[in-house]
Amino acid sequence: MSDKKIINVGIDLGTSRSVVAADNGIRTFLPSVIGYPKDAVSFKLFGRDVIYGDEALRHRLSLNIHRPFENGMLKISQDFDENSKEYKDAVQTAKLILKRLIEMVLDEEAGIRSNYHIRGVIGAPALASRKNKKALLEIAKDILDDVMIVSEPFAVAYGLKLLTAALIIDIGAGTVDLCRMHGTMPSDEDQITTTKAGDYIDSVFYELLHKKYPKAALSIGLVKKMKEENSNISRATDTITIELPIDGKPTRLDVTEELKQACSAIVPDIVNGIKKLVATFDPEFQNDLKENVILAGGGSQIVGLKKVIEEYMQSNLGYGRVTKVEEPLYAGANGALLLCKDMPDEYWHQLKDIKERTKK
Amino acid sequence: MNKASDVRFYGGSANSNYVVDYTLSTLEYSMLVLWSMLRRGGAVVLIPIENVTLPILQRMGEFCAKTSQGIKSKLDSVKDKIKYPFRFRFKADTSELEQKLLEIEAIVRSLENNHVTKSDLRAIEARLEYLEKHGIVASQEGGLQLKGKKLSEEKIMFLRAIVRENINLLED
What we know:
The structure holds 2 protein chains of 2 kinds.
Chain A: E1 5-13, E2 17-22, E3 27-31, E4 34-37, H1 40-46, E5 51-52, H2 53-58, E6 63-66, E7 69-70, E8 73-74, H3 85-106, E9 116-124, H4 130-140, E10 146-151, H5 152-159, E11 164-171, E12 176-182, E13 191-194, H6 198-212, H7 220-230, E14 241-246, E15 249-254, H8 256-264, H9 267-279, H10 286-291, E16 293-296, H11 305-317, E17 322-324, H12 331-342, H13 345-359
Parallel strand pairs in A: 1-9, 9-10, 11-16, 16-17
Antiparallel strand pairs in A: 1-2, 2-3, 4-5, 4-6, 7-8, 11-12, 12-13, 14-15
Helix pairs in contact in A: 3-4, 5-12, 6-7, 6-8, 9-11
Chain B: H1 3-40, H2 46-79, H3 87-113, H4 118-133, E1 136-138, E2 144-146, H5 153-171
Antiparallel strand pairs in B: 1-2
Helix pairs in contact in B: 1-2, 1-3, 2-3
């Protein structure tokens, strides 16, 4: 290893997007989607047997689409059997996404893969089970030379250097993770995970639109795109209209109230989570916590969400100050990268020794 | 010589002193600026140095050298023609002036001999790059030292906990 260049990477394998930040300067993401050509014709069209990310979404009609993650974890049943076909297929699909991310990191490098020693830290949902974390280790096997798993909101806190008196709310597509930081490793009591997140907003928005405009041709993908472009729960907002096909004819439709209602659907669980974490905190430091509520993840971009949470905290907890991170997409991966870089070499070696011992 | 001539003579000498002092200071200042620019990063200022600063310094140096030679030769030519009782005072003034002119010449010579070349600057850049790549920084005691990862106790505690958790995962 001594003559290999070490590359540190921070990885966030999200339900909707997988993100990587590396210390060779590469920061990128791809939708957590892969596609396999449906038949010989589509195989000939693409010239390869796996299509990734945006390309897979664009050509989804000619591909069998697989999304390996759900609710921030591998898309398999809770009590999965590691020897089952379902588990192996899910791991294989996730491996392809991780492998593609690493290829994107190495694109900038002159040498071949064997010239590099890649160390990675992967973020997992706050209350991911041990089985799910081990599944992440399995995914990283043979792709990363060294790997560690950390809680995703903790990685966000570490990257922002907010290790004491902060409440991190990471709003992703699959999960909303709340994590309270108080100068020690967060325990289960310090973390809450709710599955009402970005994908939940999409499903609520879809249902509301279908109810209001039954003749409009809708798909979850279309609805998701519209949400990401217009997400808003602010009271002071202009009318939001989108173009949808009705009987094949593009028609401009007012979706203001439906979008607001859909985006607001995740707020109750978030504010209940905040209340629980603040109320069960040491009373001497509760004000410090209320002062430092941090919104991260794609969902933090919902216009008006910050204000709604502050108003809730004001009326129910006496005070609240909410801040949005500057780079919501990269906050988790950036924090994981910083952890990876800060991790002393001897700790990596220790982990490697244990790994080799347990293999035997 | 009458009093008016005294004033003219000593005034001239004083002016020459002033000019020489100013020229010396300008040269020193230009060299300090050049040195400061080099220390900040040679390659970035290479073109301005080559195309602007060095030619200016060279021309200034040439000018100063010629001026100083000119002044010295004039001084030499009139030195022995001054009659008593002004000779001693004149010689005292001219020797101070001569000393300053000699200093300027020395600076000009050193500029010409130690002309910074493109390859010198490249070598400085390469050395700086090597130092930065290997995390070597100047130490307070003088010399160089390796820049180590300085992590706070709090961070080390977190990192240790993460490693322990991952070891438990592997041993499960």
